[in-house]
Amino acid sequence: xxxxxxxxxxxxxxxxxxxxxxxxxxxxxxxxxxxxxxxxxxxxxxxxxxxxxxxxxxxxxxxxxxxxxxxxxxxxxxxxxxxxxxxxxxxxxxxxxxxxxxxxxxxxxxxxxxxxxxxxxxxxxxxxxxxxxxxxxxxxxxxxxxxxxxxxxxxxxxxxxxxxxxxxxxxxxxxxxxxxxxxxxxxxxxxxxxxxxxxxxxxxxxxxxxxxxxxxxxxxxxxxxxxxxxxxxxxxxxxxxxxxxxxxxxxxxxxxxxxxxxxxxxxxxxxxxxxxxxx
Length: 279
Prior knowledge:
mainly alpha
């Protein structure tokens, strides 16, 4: 069972690293991001672009959603522009996962080293926070490699085929499991990267992984929605509307998973890339 300890530790490192990136960017550029989002809300196309860029920087659609809800709760933006930001944020998180799929693991020690020097040696608070984000990026890359290494022994577990056979027969179970993982981890980016790593390691078959991805997308902003429940109706409307968008997507796609899986290699041959393209 030692490999499970390694796996859970690697997943915890991934969650912590993503939090470090988000915290570093928010501390360095939080006020500028809020100002920029406020300006972009005057036009829905610009609002969607702002949501994409903000999610890329924060590596979280939930954090972007909470910023947007705060604007909407104060009556600073209409529901249409706020939902446009959320659609852009959903796109942004998918681009984040694509970026982490690139062969850039060799940058991990460099990012950690440069981030450490910036955080401990520089006087500028903003540069120190950027150093914190750099350390987080390096740790994300490191954790993804550790997850891949820790997941490899799972392939030889004699119980795994029975579990996969049960779940393969009902994609809905995969959606539920993917959703629960996302709620527990409070990060759809982390769960999508985890699923992609399992597929790359040969632990998860692609059709079942697609169901997991649907669940991760459906529940990506559940925690943000719960957090906004105390807001005025205008603020809650943003999260509920985004959840409705996601639910419609899952309902439309789920019946056709078996038809989509054979077509994914046309967009990218590697199993990991197929999963991220689907996301």
